[in-house]
Design brief:
The chain has 433 residues and is mainly α. It contains 19 helices and no strands.
Length: 433
């Protein structure tokens, strides 16, 4: 990493917040007799102390870290006062897991979205059925995502200005803030595992230590459990193994190593697929076959409400489905279109769509630059190409089963870190220090 400049604004703000949170926790218990606030502020005290300690090592991005922290903790406090819903019953399932004997909890790990309930059940076990501690943890992990993506950018571009630029965008990106602190929200922890997977995949690609591959797969597995789309990352792992430059001159040894690692990776994927792990969207492993018609039906199920698009558009023909997929991708990434604006909330969604157009153009420019270097591509540029291929597949998976721009906004928000990592060189900000 390339961090060198000393800036202590982030750890100072975080340490001050920790002191305030400790006092607020005591007052909440003694005066308000509010366990939710009491345990919530106590969790904030612990988390902000840890953030303050860790952020000292990321001094070059201290200012964006500070802004990311302020926005996310502020939104966390707002939700804790105002309240937020739990439409998917994550809390209900978390209570169920929290009431299990501790000897049974690790033999009852769920697959799919409710793995998130299993994770937050440990907070319920410690602090009771209180939601604020979960919001604080989510906000903290969202801040951690800022410095993880900064780490990855520093490896890829080795340019402090680019690292700072990416950190600022992630810190203030509207929907990354919006989805940072909800109680019923698996997006943050999914993004955390995804970024850790990308970071250690890069390290494996460029270094000789096979331990990085193991760590990347360990980060990928919970990502796949939390969301079906992350199965596409298996392809990135396989591409990295096959395209990684051999560190020995013996071609036979390289072939055996690549074959062994590829087979092992595919075996993990097939086991998860056959077990239905993370595949609840498609009901794989549950006795229902995956086919083109069922994928179209899943997409059509979400085409309800004011934000629906492409309602009733389903195909049972694989060729027609593939031919129509680019249209679905355009709707997934860039809706609501201007003619879909009917209310103020649609204007907010339109602004989000503009941000993805703003991020897509630099990706095209970066890919064009890499393409021109037909034989002189650096390992970092080759890694970006592999990452782009994976991004395209994930977008196609999301687009195929999404027909509501509200859902699309939430899903594409997971992918903005990958957009930024690929587009970083050509992204221009209104300010430049």
């Amino acid at each position: 990493m390339i961090y060198s400049e000393r800036d202590t604004i982030a750890p100072n703000i975080m340490a001050f917040t920790a002191i305030v949170a400790a006092v607020a926790s005591l007052l909440s218990f003694v005066l308000l007799q509010n366990d939710d606030f009491g345990y919530g502020f106590f969790t904030m005290f612990i988390c902000t102390l840890l953030l303050a300690f860790c952020s000292r090592k990321h001094s070059i991005i201290s200012q964006p870290l500070a802004i990311a922290f302020i926005f996310r903790i502020g939104f966390c406090l707002l939700l804790s006062v105002k309240g937020d819903g739990d439409a998917d019953n994550y809390g209900v399932y978390a209570v169920h897991f929290a009431n299990m004997p501790i000897t049974e909890i690790f033999s009852n790990i769920p697959t799919g979205a409710y793995f998130y309930s299993w994770l937050i059940s440990f907070s319920f076990r410690l602090f009771g059925e209180n939601y604020m501690p979960i919001r604080v943890i989510n906000a903290t992990l969202s801040v951690c995502c800022v410095w993880i993506i900064a780490d990855i950018a520093s490896y890829l571009y080795k340019n402090p200005k680019t690292v700072i630029k990416i950190a600022w965008i992630v810190a203030v990106f509207p929907n990354l803030i919006r989805f940072s602190s909800y109680f019923a929200n698996r997006e943050v922890i999914l993004m955390l595992f995804m970024l850790l997977y990308i970071k250690y995949s890069y390290l494996y690609y460029n270094r000789t230590n096979n331990g990085y591959l193991l760590v990347s797969i360990l980060a990928l597995i919970p990502s796949m459990i939390l969301h079906t789309s992350m199965i596409a990352m298996i392809l990135l792992t396989i591409l990295i193994i096959l395209s990684k430059e051999g560190k020995t001159q013996n071609k036979g040894t390289n072939f055996i190593r690549e074959a062994f690692l590829t087979i092992a990776t595919i075996a993990v994927f097939l086991y998860m697929l056959s077990s239905g792990i993370g595949m609840e969207k498609f009901n794989i492993g549950g006795g229902v076959d995956l086919n083109v018609s069922s994928i179209s039906n899943i997409g059509n199920m979400s085409a309800v409400g004011r934000a629906a698009y492409l309602s009733g558009v389903t195909f049972s023909n694989p060729v027609l489905t593939l031919l129509f997929l680019p249209v679905r991708v355009l709707y997934f990434l860039y809706t609501p279109f201007p003619w879909m604006i009917r209310s103020v909330i649609d204007i907010v969604g339109f602004f989000d769509a503009i941000l993805y157009i703003w991020a897509s153009i630099p990706i095209y420019k970066k890919l064009k630059e890499i393409h021109r270097k037909r034989k002189g591509k650096s390992p970092d540029e080759r890694f970006l190409l592999l990452l782009f291929i994976t991004l395209v597949i994930i977008i196609a998976m999301f687009a195929a089963v999404t027909s509501n721009y509200g859902t699309a906004i939430r899903h594409r928000c997971k992918l903005i870190p990958i957009f930024l990592l690929i587009a970083a060189d050509y992204i221009r900000l209104p300010f430049n220090r």
